[in-house]
Amino acid sequence: MSRNVSTTQSPLSHSIVTIAGLNAAQTLFDLPWTVYRVLCRWQTRHEARLALKQMDMHRLADIGVTAKQAKREAKKPFWMA
């Protein structure tokens, strides 16, 4: 009894696996830069919220923010947009 077996190459058998349209090597290469950008964004938010916390009513009025809005924004943790 003979069998007719056809072999097909699996997509995962390639040396570079694709992830969401990007190859894994490129994704791994970009990872440190992505982490760096996220950390910079968090630092910027932290500094902006500290500045908001220290502003007086006149400065808040100049930028069009109420004291209640400034307080609510300043309470947010740095990782929250």
Question: How would you describe this protein?
Answer:
- The protein is built from three helices and two strands; from the N terminus they run ββααα.
- It has a two-stranded antiparallel sheet.
- The termini are far apart.
- The chain has helices at 24-54, 57-62, 67-75, and strands at 18-19, 22-23.
- The chain is mainly α and 81 residues long.
- It is rod-shaped, with a radius of gyration of 26 Å.
- Helix 1 (24-54) crosses helix 3 (67-75).
- It has a domain at 26-75.
- The protein is 57% helix and 5% strand.
- A hairpin with a 2-residue loop joins strand 1 and strand 2 (22-23).
A few lines on this structure:
The chain is mainly alpha-helical. The chain has helices at residues 24-54, 57-62, 67-75; strands at residues 18-19, 22-23. It has 3 helices and 2 strands.
